[in-house]
Design brief:
F-box-assoc_dom_typ1, F-box associated beta-propeller type 1 domain-containing protein, 114 residues, 0% helix
Length: 114
């Protein structure tokens, strides 16, 4: 499913279970995907796994992302085909909806900004 056109997004964060949900809607084709990012890591290491709902069933791609522990702060933002979660260390978890691959984007912000 290729997403084109105008999009909207929303997200739900459940801090107790370390679950993070992003919704992307293609208003042109009236299709959507829900991406459920689950942190199954420890206090010292985040290990993100992903589940995708594409309109009729949930799938679990093999994609995982392991990095130093940090908590996503806000609802995800959709940009250029990917959902992006800003983490409290300033880095960004990016999940591409077309390729279903995740990556960590390291960013250095001035202290106190994030």
């Amino acid at each position: 499913m290729r997403f084109t056109g105008v999009f909207s997004h929303t997200g739900v964060v459940n801090r107790g279970n370390k679950k993070h949900i992003g919704l992307v809607v293609d208003r042109t084709t009236k299709s959507f995907k829900i991406v459920h990012m689950v942190d199954v890591g420890t206090d010292y290491e985040s290990k993100y796994k992903f589940e995708i709902y594409g309109g009729n069933s949930w799938r679990r791609p093999k994609t995982t992302l392991t990095c130093l522990s940090s908590f996503p702060l806000k609802t995800p933002v959709y940009l250029d085909g990917s959902l992006h979660w800003l983490r409290n260390d300033g880095s960004i978890v990016s999940f591409n909806l077309e390729t279903e691959h995740a990556r960590l984007i390291p960013i250095s912000f001035p202290r106190g900004l994030v």
